[in-house]
Amino acid sequence: MLFNSLQYLIFLPLVFALYWGMNHRSLKLQNLLLLAASYYFYACWDWRFLFLLVFSTGLDYYTGLKMKDAHSVRMKKFWFWLSIGINVGFLGIFKYYNFFAESFAELLSGFGFQANLWTLQVILPVGISFYTFHGLSYVIDIYKNRIEPERNIVDYSLFVSYFPLLVAGPIERATHLLPQIKKRRNFDYTKAVDGLRQILWGLFKKVVIADNCANYANVIFENPEAHSGSTLALGAVFFAFQIYGDFSGYSDIALGTSRLFGIELLKNFNYPYFSRDIAEFWRRWHISLSTWFRDYLYIPLGGSQGGTLMKVRNTFIIFLVSGFWHGANWTFIVWGLLNALFIMPSIILNTNRNNLDIVAKGKNFPTIKELIQIILTFGITCFAWIFFRAKDLDAAFNYVKGIFSDTFFNLPHFAGKYYSFGTMFFIFLLIVIEWLDRENNYGLQKFLSKKTKMARWFFYLFLIVFIFIYSGQEQSFIYFQF
Amino acid sequence: MRKFVIKVLFILILSIIAILLTIFLLNKITSERAKFKIKSSVTENLILGHSQPECAYNDSLISGFLNLSKSAESYFYNYIKLRKILEQNKGVKRVFIEFSNNQIEKGMNNWIWGDELLSERYSRYAPFMSFNEHLLICSNNRIGFLKNQPIISKRNFEYIIKNDYDFTTKIGGYNRLSRCKTDSILKFSNKANKVKAKFELSRTNIEYLIKIIDLCEKNKIKVFLIRTPMHPKNEILNNEISYQKILKEKFKDVDYLDFIDFPLDNSEFGDLAHLNFRGAEKYSLFFNNLIKDSLLFKNDKQKMINSKIAEFRQNLIK
């Protein structure tokens, strides 16, 4: 069930009505309803993978309790590694087995050996990377004595499977979400309205920006040889807005939906395209994953404690793993590597924490220097996105070669060029609104709040109308494949 | 909570009104600006129908004819298209409508409101449809009707962005089929077990054919039902008895031109239903000669067609 589908339009109000309808009864019942709704939501994709989700949940719940009750460090370690091993094992089998098998066969054939390795013909269970990381953080936190294990199976299952975040995050932490699940929630009018507004903004980003940009990015990326350098560069920009609209749009809908149920989720995006350097970009893009890697990989590896060399090594590791997390393809690994290279100067010069504040805070416009920094950061991000989007490394390198050809100064030309002017207008609108709202939680939160109610409502209706117009294409979210 | 529900309902009602208004306005703009004006040299004779005439009539070889057939287009959409064409082209004198064996079958209903074709056909013609025509789609496929509203609006919005309202290039034309799969299809179908499907009539499609005829009569335009050549082994010909019955019962007053026996080799068919470009060329030239020989003004047209086909066959043998 997609957030941008007719099905969800019926599902959400129904769950909302039942949820608040039983508010006066008990919290347990509310949580049970949310869990049942989450399992139904997940089963709409493929009910068979529900067993995997339930098994993974049960495993972490059980090992969590066993770790707590373990009488010796050895037993605690045993349960810890059992959970980690099975979780990572599932991820490895479903997501990475074919990649390793094929890469190994290629390597062997490079040495003149013929290897016919068995590959799996299975589809990737939707959201497996996300719920596995939920479970991993929970188990690691118990092992490190940061949290107590959750004894209520319904509450724990809801923490793993809560439908707004189940298939594409944000990747939650037990310390943040579980206390909210266990606490009685009261309906808050202001928060609920804010949730609806965030859903509206997320839908706009997904349906109007991402799905439209996808049309042009697909045309250009699928046939790069037929396009000029300038068109290819524009294709990369379209993809940059596609992936931003798609993923941050999804996150906005998830956060907004959750707010309707009185639960706050972790912020996942913080206007990343207004970043002044790549380190700032990574503090603002897919925040829940970046912080997950920081807390569970970077810091355990030594973080920035062991001098510059250690920092460089750990940064490379974290970006390579992050690239690999996105998918079993060399393109993602190179994408991670490129980002590590981009961030490296600031790591070595220790300037990676220079831009911690909000750009041009309290001002209407950035300075020339800030504007140049933003454009440059966006430019190198787009360059890396080419590797993320391309089907393989050859295609990515050819694409880059195509950009830097003598046709770079030709006027861009591609199928559907005239229709793209509408999309460009909406991209411009997105930039303006997000710029004006960059000091708030999401675009649109305070947009036009100083204007009359009429003006604000008129603008919301304008967004609704365009979401409706473009909703016919109903495309899946990119991050579902991860 | 109450305040929230009231507010949501209010937003919902406002949104529905805004969306309905958008659908209406975009349809209205497209309908008013749409150009169906055909070049005056070819407006006299129009050919309408589905993929069979689309592939059979190479109108560059038939003087004064314009092939406006479109694959998988039912009489329902033919009618809406013709209505718009006649509004803007006063020079049309004759309309040739394909009347083939599959066009009476119940499967045609899917061509009107079935999910597979709805997003293409309905979204193309929606701006020109009456309330009752929309209602027909809605009553037979509610979900499809709803799902297609944004597709229709997007299409209309794109016409506005591109300022492109020329529909003459969007509503059909001769389709040059280059494939020739007849032999392989026959080889396969000989081996396969044939199960003869029970014949069921598409009342809606027939109803709209009658509407096309009425529309032409109202505009003082001569109508001809025409059957283009088909491969004799096409299974759709199994309903021939029902086909002839409907032809006699419902369309006895309409001129009927049957070319089903026109001699063509397997190599001149794209498959069992469609002529490829070789077949189209051969048939279109033959058809053009018949028109030049004043076929349309003869009393017994079918007799002339049959004798010309026999003559043509004799010449081929020689």
UniProtKB/TrEMBL annotation, chain A:
Keywords: Acyltransferase, Cell membrane, Membrane, Transferase, Transmembrane, Transmembrane helix. Its main location: membrane. One of its GO terms (molecular function) is acyltransferase activity. GO terms for cellular component: plasma membrane. It is found in: Cell membrane. The chain crosses the membrane at residues 6-22, 34-58, 78-97, 117-136, 332-350, 371-388, 418-436, 457-473. GO terms for biological process: alginic acid biosynthetic process. It is a multi-pass membrane protein. The keyword Transmembrane helix applies. Pfam families: MBOAT. InterPro entries: Ac/AlaTfrase_AlgI/DltB (IPR024194), AlgI (IPR028362), MB_O-acyltransferase (IPR051085), MBOAT_fam (IPR004299). Belongs to the membrane-bound acyltransferase family. PANTHER family: ACYLTRANSFERASE, PROTEIN-CYSTEINE N-PALMITOYLTRANSFERASE RASP. This is D-alanyl-lipoteichoic acid acyltransferase DltB, MBOAT superfamily. It comes from Flavobacterium saliperosum.
Automatic annotation (TrEMBL), chain B:
It comes from the Bacteria. This is DUF1574 domain-containing protein.
